[in-house]
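Progress against Task 2.4 (sequence-to-structure conversion) is shown through the following example record, which the project officer requested during the mid-term review.
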Amino acid sequence: MIAIIDYDAGNIKSVEKAVTALGQEVCATRNHEAILKAEKVILPGVGAFGDAMEKIRSYGLESVIREVVKRRTPFLGICLGLQLLFEKSEESPGVEGLSILEGEILRIPDENNLKIPHIGWNSLSFPNQGRLFKGIEEEAYVYFVHSYYLNARDKDIVTATAEYGAHIEASVEKGNIFACQFHPEKSSEVGLKIIRNFIELEGKGE
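Structure tokens generated for the chain above:
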């Protein structure tokens, strides 16, 4: 069973639908025991960094997320779910993120007449090999909806990048932790392949 952490994030239903379409049993839940029993765990997210962290903490989910990571259960953050894994965000000064990975979230610069938020399809480059992108060609297109982007401290964990007014670190991988700034559940066949690659990871902490 795959658990989707339910903290009132905006894209839970679309993630659930995508995982179900791949023939997987899925449960959107904030029940601690159900999350810890899951074979794999997904942290979705649409919205503001500070509000999301407040909800995660009010539901007692921060300790559960840390336990999932400690147990080396494959864990996937999507969009805001990627940002929350890091230390802080310019969107919500003074709010501490989960700090499971090192780095900060920055606002996409208002320049070059680019529309903010960044909404639409962008191609990916792969600076480091990532298991989520097995069988996916360089320059594949995925769907983004965001105004903020990751600046990871350790560039070796960055497995995909895109360009949109800044060098967007679009995906990371470290041990059993995977995360995408884009929305694989809204990225057509490429996105479903990424989710399938996550589903097909063997065991805990492969």
